[in-house]
Please model this.
Amino acid sequence: MTESDQKSTKKRSRGIYLLPNLFTTAALFSGFYAMASAISGQYEKAAMLIFVSLVLDGLDGRVARMTNTQSDFGAEYDSMADMVSFGAAPAIVMYLWSLAALGQAGLIAAFIHLAGGALRLARFNTQLGTQDKRYFQGLPSPAAAAILAGLVWVSEKYAYGIDGLPWLVLVITIATGLLMVSNFRYYSFKDINFRGKVPFVAMIGVMVGFAITLSNPATVLFLFFFGYALSGPALTIILLRRKRQERSQEHD
Model:
């Protein structure tokens, strides 16, 4: 390789891939817009924008893999965007929506979610090469953010007045923060082969699922992610029992 070729290679390596980082930037903007909307008192809009961030966050990694444009920069940028969209944005929305009525206690609860999101992302990044890809350790930050955003969306859409129960909101906000840094195992869905063939009945099930979600997205999404949060402790107990049974069979 000539000296000019080496220089051109170095110049190309300094650039960043545009397409996946566009999705990450859009997710980051949605998280920022959610915070701005909450400050303006538009809480339902803020909750919906957090879900928009969730969708965009799921797309950027898949687009990078499909187009073979993964990079260390993209991974780091994605983590920073996640910290804003799923750590800071839900914490600020919950504080302004309900927790501010509790004073210092509400402030601490919002910070626990924020800190839990930061610790969760840091631990995830350091365990990328060693962790079992079938499971997440701790509740993923997008799912934790979706629980809080879903709670706000359901309450505002149907005027349930949950914001008038700040102690309940405090418990849920703290719980999401602690679940993110817990050792509970959560199914990652990464071993599902989306390119493979499925029975025709499965497609009908997917269509029904989309129809139900679109008919009442606020309630369905909140219940889905709330159930996913509960699945972690249940899955962990099942896996621990299997290990104990395997150990007992080996000793026998």
Remarks:
- The mean pLDDT is 88.
- The first strand starts at residue 135 and ends at 137.
- The radius of gyration is 21 Å.
